[in-house]
Design goal:
The complex is a heterodimer. By secondary structure, chain A is α+β, with helices and mostly antiparallel strands. Chain A folds into two domains: 108 residues, Ubiquitin-like (UB roll); 130 residues, Fumarate Reductase Iron-sulfur Protein, Chain B, domain 2 (Orthogonal Bundle). Helices cover 36% and strands 12% of the residues of chain A. Chain A is built from nine helices and seven strands, in the order ββαβββββαααααααα. A five-stranded mixed beta sheet of chain A has the order 2-1-5-3-4. Chain A has a two-stranded antiparallel sheet with strand order 6-7. By secondary structure, chain B is an alpha+beta fold. Among the domains of chain B are: 161 residues, Succinate dehydrogenase/fumarate reductase flavoprotein, catalytic domain (Flavocytochrome C3, Chain A, domain 1); 112 residues, Methane Monooxygenase Hydroxylase, Chain G, domain 1, CATH 1.20.58.100. Helices cover 40% and strands 14% of the residues of chain B. In chain B, the strands form six sheets. Chain B has a five-stranded parallel beta sheet with strand order 5-2-1-9-17. In chain B, strands 11-15-14-12-13 form a five-stranded antiparallel beta sheet. A four-stranded antiparallel beta sheet of chain B has the order 16-10-20-21. In chain B, strand 20 and strand 21 form a beta hairpin. In chain B, helix 4 crosses helix 5, helix 5 packs across helix 13 and helix 15 packs parallel to helix 17. Chain B is globular. In chain B, 59% of the residues are buried. The chains are: A alpha+beta, B alpha+beta. Chains A and B meet through helix 1, helix 2 and helix 3 of A and helix 3, helix 5, helix 6, helix 12 and helix 13 of B.
Chain lengths: 248, 663
């Protein structure tokens, strides 16, 4: 299949970016990133600068791949990361626009690669349970209701890719933050420091330059792990409880 | 060089307990004055950095990723073993130890493996306390499943994403220490050399991947948790960035590399679809609980399938060869990974492969769907159900068990595995070999430790399913925090290590020269093209089936390729900027040397054991181990022309060496 790629090229964080057009010949069984590999090999053979993009596991779990494809983070296929998107989702003659995730808190490094360390900062503010190695009681000491564990798991599947932020017109990280808070807070072992966690993670989220949530819902639609905005609703409730009531 | 394994005296079951209780400790006031470098943030690295931080050491932790959470441990699917015996089915620490020794084909160190089994139970407790959402029963207690052909149910899991959940647990513990200032985290910093001062590991040289700046980091001790080297094959289930460089740079500084030829080739991966393929995707071993593996009985049928003229469902039962069930009636489709992989290769080599390239076999769920469907219909009181109803009910059961895997398969291949048989083929998945370490996980370089997949010690010649997560976390949470004290207890009077010594300057210069050399080649071929060619040589000559002639030829080809690389590779850009091609070039350069050592090691080991299958060493078509000559660990000292072999003889005092049979 013959494709035209309209790719965002930006030399570094301070340089002016622009779109560049490329023609590429792809196979329908290729993954989207393998199609970009083909483009990069051609650029290298011509001794031109290859397109920088982040990727690692290429099986949809590490969260490294990012990029906005035809206006949608990770493309328009539901529940799919860029690395799992395959070219059979496109047809010959298509023009595909490829841009970096765009958000205040994710500065562009080069081309399609952005800096997402603001996510680490949010986790460091409280995305953990304070237990040192060796302090744990037996794993079966506290029974946890199966459905509750399953709900915690659903929130815990977040891969930290940042698609929620890129999808949000406000550049908000509420889906990311609330998913971690619900993963830990739903289980008894995470309840103990729940209140502190809510306040601290929200404070750092704001400090890192993420926007406010205005309930648009685009984050849930573009989340490759289909994490629900119910998490955001729950976080809003906890947060108000913490700020005005001193509890959730 | 005499290799001292430093295994403590005493009964097997008492060794670790006694040792832990009597070893030298470092007092809290001294821990504060000691610096430790941890490289890598997968299960082993993140667990070690977090725990050493909790203990009070000053930890500097490094990853080439943009965040510690991206390490490839995250991709492990199936589960983690632990001898909890929650199922009351006869499991015990001894049984886990025995299964692991036997599974590794009697090529691992008894005392290390026993300690691993002991630590396994504490890992589950720790992970639960961190909030890892393991699968649970309706009563609220932890669920288990069976895995990898053992006879007990000891695998804990979090759907098909156990590695992700455990890594996020370790990452959260690490994040907590980073927030406290106890661990200083360096993201996007790649270790490019090891620095030794007076023979001891005292630091590393890193490259800031965003700016290209080289930095000298000094510490009292260096811990490597940098993963395996499966990407020497180019195509593997490893992440694109997984590499051997930190370990290999240490080898260049005198560390020994053990058993490089022990590679695990996982039987159930999605087959290669074309020349452009960049990586392979694993389908969890758990699928073999219900899927039946087969190929057509005749080459004619296989060719028709390869041409797309026939499909799996067109072949009647009598024209199919369920070769695992035929060859291994006792274990059937659940034989260990090495056996299943070789059998798939044999079938494909006979011309009976079922994909366009000829390299693929079926993993068929039709029988399971029918079996589950009938049972569900019976349970629901439906008499004489239609075949459509049976299918519908059966597919629902299969979906509840393997839904996410089936969905992943469909995304990648575009085929619906509920309707037509999956196609699978073996792929490189894990490397049992790694840096040689003693019982303390210390390499032969004092002060340099290696954890997780980066060391060689626990899995022998073949790793059992759900044991990699166990080992990474055991090493990181429960072993290194103690054993590093055996080295550091003697360093409490050593002042802060300066990074301004001649050794550090020399090492930095070495790195700079090497990067400049690579950039100066200015040839015409991309790094990727060399990596692909190396992978092809490795697969063809050092892959699932090896022989002396092929290994010699492979070594020659790798050497020729290395020469060509240094004459004709082209790397765009410069060293002082964000330059992923330069990063890759340095890694591929190291793979070109490791690949050669791999072939040398495989040639030396004239027996078949575990993942290492030598065509010269077989009996009735099955692998034949040779205990009289090869019951040793091969620890290699690198030399460009003649790598030097140091042997650590393995002694088995608690288990009897037997032939593994699955017939």
């Amino acid at each position: 299949m013959k494709l035209t790629l309209k790719v965002w090229r930006q030399k570094n964080n301070t340089a002016q970016g622009h779109f560049e057009n490329y023609q590429v010949e792809a196979d329908e069984h290729m993954s989207f990133l393998e199609m970009l590999d083909v483009l990069n090999q051609e650029l290298i053979e011509k001794k031109e600068d290859p397109v920088a993009f982040e990727h690692d596991c290429r099986e949809g779990i590490c969260g490294a791949c990012s990029m906005v494809i035809n206006g949608r983070p990770h493309g328009s296929q539901a529940g799919t990361t860029t690395c799992q998107l395959h070219m059979r989702a496109f047809k010959t003659g298509d023009t595909i626009t490829i841009e970096p995730f765009r958000a205040n808190a994710f500065p562009v490094i080069k081309d399609l690669a952005v800096d997402r360390s603001s996510f680490d900062a949010i986790i460091q503010a409280g995305g953990y349970i304070s237990v040192n190695t060796g302090q744990a009681p037996d794993g079966n000491a506290i029974p946890i209701e199966k459905d509750l564990a399953s709900e915690a798991f659903d929130a815990a599947t977040c891969i930290g890719c940042g698609a929620c932020v890129a999808a949000c017109p406000n550049g908000s990280a509420m889906l990311f933050t609330s998913a971690k808070i619900n993963h830990l807070g739903k289980m008894p072992q995470g309840q103990v420091e729940h209140g502190r966690r809510v306040k601290n993670m929200v404070r750092v989220m704001d400090k890192e330059g993420f926007g406010k949530c205005s309930n648009v819902g685009a984050c849930e639609v573009d989340c490759p792990k289909e994490i629900s905005t119910d998490n955001i609703a729950a976080l809003n409730r906890y947060y108000l409880g913490q700020v005005f009531g001193g509890q959730d | 060089m005499k290799l001292e394994a430093n295994v403590p005296e005493g009964e097997l079951a008492e060794k670790w307990k006694k040792y832990r209780g009597s070893m030298n400790l470092v007092a809290p006031n001294n821990k504060r004055r000691l610096d430790v470098i941890v490289v890598g943030t997968g299960l082993a690295g993140a667990a070690a950095a977090a725990t050493l931080g909790e203990l009070g050491y000053n930890v500097k932790c490094f990853t080439f990723h943009d965040s510690p959470r991206r390490a490839h441990s995250i991709a492990a699917q199936g589960g983690i073993n632990a001898a909890k015996n929650y199922q009351n089915d006869g499991d015990s620490i001894y049984r886990l130890f025995y299964d692991t020794i036997k599974g590794g084909d009697y090529r691992s160190r008894e005392a290390n493996v026993y300690r691993l089994a002991e630590c396994s139970t504490e890992i589950i407790d720790q992970a639960v306390a961190q909030g890892v959402p393991f699968a649970r029963e309706y009563g609220g207690l932890l669920a288990n499943r069976s895995f990898g052909g053992v006879q007990v149910s000891r695998t804990f899991y979090a759907r098909g994403q156990t590695g992700q959940q455990l890594l996020l647990g370790a990452y959260s513990a690490l994040s907590r220490q980073i927030a406290k200032g106890q661990v200083k985290m360096y993201n996007r910093h790649e270790m490019l050399d090891l620095v030794k001062v007076d023979g001891k590991a005292r630091g590393i040289i890193t490259r800031n991947l965003l700016t290209g700046k080289l930095d000298r980091h000094a510490a009292h001790s260096v811990v490597l948790a940098t993963g395996g080297y499966g990407n020497v094959f180019y195509l593997s289930t490893n992440a694109m960035g997984s590499n051997v460089s930190a370990a290999w740079r240490s080898v260049k500084e005198g560390a020994l590399f053990a058993n490089p030829c022990y590679t695990q080739i996982h039987p159930t991966c999605i087959p290669v679809s074309g020349e452009y393929q960049s990586k392979l995707t694993l389908m969890s071993e758990s699928l073999r609980n219900d899927g039946r593996v087969w190929v057509p009985k005749t080459v004619e049928d296989a060719q028709a399938i390869q041409r797309g003229e026939k499909r799996a469902e067109d072949l009647p039962e009598e024209d199919r060869d369920y070769y695992l069930e035929r060859r291994y009636p006792a274990f059937g489709n659940l034989v260990p990974r090495d056996v299943a992989s070789r059998a798939a290769k044999v079938a494909s080599d006979e011309g009976k492969g079922v994909v366009k390239t000829g390299l693929g076999v079926y993993l068929d769920f039709a029988a399971a769907i029918e079996r589950y469907g009938k049972s569900e219909a019976f349970a629901a009181g439906i008499h004489n159900p239609s075949s459509e109803k049976i299918r519908e009910l059966g597919e629902a059961v299969v979906k509840s068990k393997y839904g996410n895997l089936f969905q992943m398969y469909e995304k990648i291949t575009g085929e619906n595995p509920y309707k037509t048989a999956m196609k699978i083929y073996p792929a490189v998945h894990y490397t049992m070999g790694g840096l040689w370490v003693d019982y303390n996980l210390q390499t032969n370089v004092p002060g340099l430790f290696a954890l997780g997949e980066a060391n060689f010690s626990d899995h022998g010649a073949n790793r059992l399913g759900a044991s990699a997560l166990m080992q990474g976390l055991a090493d990181g949470y429960f072993v290194i925090p103690y054993t590093i004290g055996t080295f550091l207890a003697n360093e409490i009077r050593t002042p802060k290590i300066s990074n301004d010594s001649p050794e550090f300057h020399d090492a930095e210069q070495r790195v700079k020269n090497r990067l400049d050399q690579l950039l100066a080649i200015g040839g015409n071929q991309s790094v990727e093209s060399f990596h692909r060619r190396l992978g092809k040589i490795m697969w063809d000559y050092c892959g699932m089936s090896r022989n002396a002639e092929g290994l010699k030829k492979g070594r020659e080809l790798i050497r020729a390729l290395r020469k060509e690389f240094y004459e004709d590779v082209y790397i765009p850009g410069s060293a002082d900027e964000f330059n992923p091609e330069l990063e890759k070039a340095a890694r591929v350069a190291d793979f070109l040397e490791l690949g050669e050592l791999f072939a040398v090691d495989a040639l030396d080991r004239g027996e078949s054991c575990g993942g290492h299958f030598r065509e010269e060493s077989t009996e009735n078509g099955e692998a034949k181990r040779n205990d009289a000559e090869y019951t040793y660990v091969s620890a290699w000292e690198w030399d460009d022309n003649n790598p030097v072999l140091h042997k650590e003889e393995l002694t088995f005092e608690n288990v009897e060496l037997k032939t593994r049979s699955y017939k």
